[in-house]
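Example 3.2
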Amino acid sequence: MLRTRALLGVASDLLGQMSDERFGFAENFDIVSRSSGVVHHPNRLSGGEKFLASLALALALAELHSRSGPTLGALFLDEGFATLDTAALESALEVLRAQAGGDRLVMVISHLHAVAEAVDEVLWVERNATGSSARWLTPAERDELVQADLVSGLQTLA
């Protein structure tokens, strides 16, 4: 019970940071709306909000594991970022940047170029006829990728 409360406390703080202090965790992993105090089941959240709640729980598990045992050196997150609006994406990436560093590696698997812009190291993976290939992008290649994405989006709006 104490571990669950600790998990929910850390996850609630992280979820608050990522949701502009709109949400937190209540007992039994329910979600509390901080502005109204209303507690509801997580199924009432949007897809992006569910992703943020899941991300907060994953980061909280890693944090608590590191506090009570050997350091958890790596955390891999696979997608979900596409469900977020621009502000929520920036908040989530800000929390991830704060969690990474020192002796902790946070690896994000994503097809969003905005995620590539937010991280220092980008491993570009492409599928080809013989399987797939991977290479580390230089900072200039990463910036070019993001710029091309921006131009493409602007052309779509025009």
